[in-house]
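We include this case.
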Amino acid sequence: MGRRKKIVQECETLMDNPEHIRNIAIAAHVDHGKTTLTDNLLAGAGMISDDTAGEQLAMDTEEDEQERGITIDAANVSMTHEYEDTNHLINLIDTPGHVDFGGDVTRAMRAVDGALVVVDAVEGAMPQTETVLRQALREGVKPTLFINKVDRLISELQEGPEEMQERLLDVIRDVNELIRAMTEEMDDINEDWTVGVEEGTVGFGSALYKWGVSMPSMQRTGMDFGEIIDLERADKRQELHERTPLSDVVLDMVCEHFPNPIDAQPRRIPRIWRGDADSDVAESMQLVDEDGDVVLMVTDIGIDPHAGEIAAGRVFSGTIEKGQELYVSGTAGKNRVQSVGIYMGGEREEVDRVPAGNIAAVTGLKDAIAGSTVSSIEMTPFESIEHISEPVITKSVEAQNMDDLPKLIETLQQVAKEDPTIQIEINEDTGEHLISGQGELHLEVIGQRIERNQGIPINTGEPIVVFREAPQTDSREVEGISPNRHNRFYITVTPLDEEIVDTIQHGEASMDMPELERREALQEAGMDKDTSQNVEHIHNTNIIIDDTKGIQHLNETMELVLEGMEEALNDGPLAAEPVQGSLIRLHDARLHEDAIHRGPAQVIPATRQAIHNALIDAEVRLLEPIQQVRIDVPNDHMGAASGEIQGRRGRVDDMYQEGDLMVVEGVAPVDEMIGFSSDIRSATEGRASWNTENAGFQVMADNLQRETIMEIRERKGMKQELHQAIDYF
């Protein structure tokens, strides 16, 4: 029997024993060595050859991932590992490190119970390390730490045991500070989740040279750092690998320190699901009951050229089998399961069934998107997966041949289904479609894949930055009058506190929640009690409050009022960009008693006009997306690096020495960062490494407001005159 078949059979045998299952993700900053480490684990489990591990990058299954040398899609694999005489099933997800693909990390965290965070020993904890840790902890996923590239400290930086120890302790200290700050507010975590060498929750090693150590492995093998340094310096890396193989150290750590589904699900379910805690399905999920109702949370949608669409996700309850008819949240009717499987890297192996506590790959769920709840009964869906950043860059895409247009539209709809961090706007009249994503690379990859995988030649436009509009002060009460003059609405707009906006963005307050929970979350973020009781609607990061008292016919008209308000907030008064962070109060309304005179054609324009006028009165401004920038550069190129940030309307916040490099940290507008990579290379003779991370939106300088607004209006084909009341910049 082939080795692969044997592993699949072992996995099938272990699936029914949740105590011996570990669902884990490997997460890190870009280029810290996640995929190379995963190769080692696959080799240790006998799934790829030991010789090619580290170069094969087996989890980067797409051609463009191998070409660019970065992970773009999260990839799943199931493997087995014997720990303390017991065989364990490990379902692992290798996630991307590049900030543009952060959505894949967030979705992977929903499927797992443990996150192995990888940090480069030389670079230490980087911005993206902090982001992936936050994504893991927000989902209730327990972290452990692997410090990679320790060989560089020995061979490149020539550090002795004391210096090395000090540097490694610094990395652990930084990671623990992040964990402590993030877990302090979490009531459901009653144990200490910080990592430590003594506890065995920290491993060290070199994924490239396939060796690794931890405190338990050192006690077992008798190796110490002095001996490791000697072997590394004597170039006896093969001996090092044979005496203390990386895969054993990491997989032992996974089996010992990560929770199994039986420990994890009772804690995680209340965090990610807001249904009735006393229902049968809640009990079935908490107990990881394979005989209960089927509940699958879809975290990833992929395409297989032969099998079509594959939905991968975590089975929280019941057992998924071929032929089942299942509900998909938010859609009517049922979908029929065509096949069930588990992942072996790029390949999917079909199995008869996948019980609770495992990660499954299912075909036939045609209505599912990443984030869907799939179940055998109608139930409250899981909380939506909240992505930390939102799209900041847009490109137009059009088919070179009009004959390809239907296929392109279909492909774009598929892209949106696979990656919820992408927003697609399809204009069937003009044939021009807009794709918005997390950054230049994100959109570039999508464009290449449309051409390469679907064979559709496309033209893409220049990148366009996504702006926002937001009120800056409190408006006076503004009247909105319907076209027939029989209906009037009285509205004010005020800016929302930053903390309340964050609460909405992180999904901690939404209209899907029970009213009492939502009220408490808003009050905790600083909203006063009376206001929180009158919340009528939340749209994006805007809150609509109904302060009216006993107005006749308002109940049956409210839906149209909200529709008009949503329209106004989707297209702000300055440049038809989305409005964010506004608190809108409806104070009063005069409505015609005859329903025919207060229909959509009257109410929608009246509320839309009222909100736009109130926003103008509240001195609405254009906000531009900004990015945090970190550049690591040799001393003599520091001036050039900081000049690159300052020359882009950015500001440098900090400069400090780290090892033999200078670190320059600052922020700059996304609009100015387009083309940054080639400029920084030439400015520093290719000696700089850098990282950018989206950091939300900030008000654009007043002297640039009018010019930018006019450019956007021209691009959108809008009139070039602004409302006469806009005279404040």
User: Anything to note?
Assistant: Confidence is low (pLDDT under 50) at residues 52-73, 97-102. Residues 161-183 form the longest helix (23 residues). The two ends are 75 Å apart (CA to CA). The CA atoms of residues 134 and 181 lie 10 Å apart.
